[in-house]
Amino acid sequence: METIKVAVQKSGRLNEDSLRILKDCGISIDNGRDQLRASARNFPMEVFYLRNGDIPQYLKDGVVDIAIIGENVLIEKGADIPVVEKLGFSRCRVSIAVPKNVEYNSINDLEGKRIATSYPNTVLQYLNQKGVTSDLHIINGSVEIAPNIGLADAVCDIVSSGSTLFKNNLKEVEVLLQSEAVLAVSPKAGAKQHKILEQLRFRLQSVLEARNNRYVLMNAPNESLEAIISLLPGMRSPTVLPLAESGWSSIHTVINKDRFWEVLDQVKKEGAEGILVCPIEKMIV
Ligand SMILES: Nc1ncnc2c1ncn2[C@@H]1O[C@H](COP(=O)(O)OP(=O)(O)OP(=O)(O)O)[C@@H](O)[C@H]1O
Ligand SMILES: O=P(O)(O)OC[C@H]1O[C@H](OP(=O)(O)OP(=O)(O)O)[C@H](O)[C@@H]1O
Ligand SMILES: [Mg+2]
């Protein structure tokens, strides 16, 4: 049977969320902690557990058809590999930082300076764009310690909460790019694999939509209905059903997870009560 080969990070920050999103797509994978390869039981998919940093090359070579990978790694190593879905987890940015006590006015301050990084291509492209030449030191981990041990004047690495920079007395001075986990596709994937990919994307989109929204139910006196409904978004429009008690209705709708607190505040003021907020498992728009 034709399958789609998907690369997932073997261990690290992306592993758990990658496997969870596949599971939420209804794909059951035999647990492959110690295996390098596992098959899905109910979907034509094989999972390859690989190092994040190696995945762009596997995509280029067509060893795997698709991958769940940090966009930052793809940009660093995988020019020309198309991204078909942004997956909404492992959000971070790639930034340049310098010691807190150093005066920094612009990127020109890095002319001739030593920058330690695991992202040489990304930094080089950025510096070239700005017409600045620096001396790059490529290191694979614990980059933020470099200025403290006299190895570099600046670093370029991943920043998320900023706590690693803070602990190492560094300040973020340039943001080169924003990143999140993405679904990337090998330029060598065949027609059969693209067909399976479309099935997977349909499922992923319904999972991602569901994660971004909440199902909200509330009760309201009929005289407040119009005012409340005007405040509510919905997939098409809110559902209104009569309650057993006359003069009251139940209103059901879908609200984006980033907006529902604000909307709930407003509808409460208009007389809504008994408000329930529920997760949605799948959402097909
Ligand atoms: N602090 C962070 N917060 C959010 N996302 C992050 C953070 N650090 C890394 N990431 C994202 O997760 C990806 C994997 O990071 P992780 O540190 O697990 O792997 P790695 O050590 O770079 O890779 P490898 O699998 O090759 O050993 C990164 O490429 C980036 O996209
Ligand atoms: O802004 P923060 O929230 O502190 O996150 C940023 C840190 O997270 C990553 O390291 P990780 O913990 O993955 O360790 P690693 O260097 O061993 O990959 C990254 O390399 C930074 O050092
Ligand atoms: Mg890391």
TrEMBL record:
Q: Which residues form the ATP phosphoribosyltransferase catalytic domain?
A: 51-205
Cofactor requirements of the protein: Mg(2+)
List the molecular function annotations (GO) for this entry.
ATP phosphoribosyltransferase activity
Quote the SUPFAM superfamilies the UniProt record gives. GlnB-like (SSF54913), Periplasmic binding protein-like II (SSF53850)
Q: Where is the signal peptide?
A: none
Q: What is its main location?
A: cytoplasm
Please name the pathway: Amino-acid biosynthesis; L-histidine biosynthesis; L-histidine from 5-phospho-alpha-D-ribose 1-diphosphate: step 1/9
Which InterPro entries does this one have?
ATP-PRT_HisG_long, ATP_PRibTrfase_cat, ATP_PRibTrfase_CS, ATP_PRibTrfase_HisG, HisG_C, N-reg_PII-like_a/b, N-reg_PII/ATP_PRibTrfase_C
Described purpose of this protein according to its UniProt entry = Catalyzes the condensation of ATP and 5-phosphoribose 1-diphosphate to form N'-(5'-phosphoribosyl)-ATP (PR-ATP). Has a crucial role in the pathway because the rate of histidine biosynthesis seems to be controlled primarily by regulation of HisG enzymatic activity.
Xref: PANTHER family: ATP PHOSPHORIBOSYLTRANSFERASE, ATP PHOSPHORIBOSYLTRANSFERASE ATP-PRTASE
> Which HAMAP family does this one have?
HisG_Long (MF_00079)
Put simply, this protein is called: ATP phosphoribosyltransferase
Protein source organism = Robiginitalea aurantiaca
Lineage of the species this protein comes from: Bacteria, Pseudomonadati, Bacteroidota, Flavobacteriia, Flavobacteriales
Name of the encoding gene: hisG
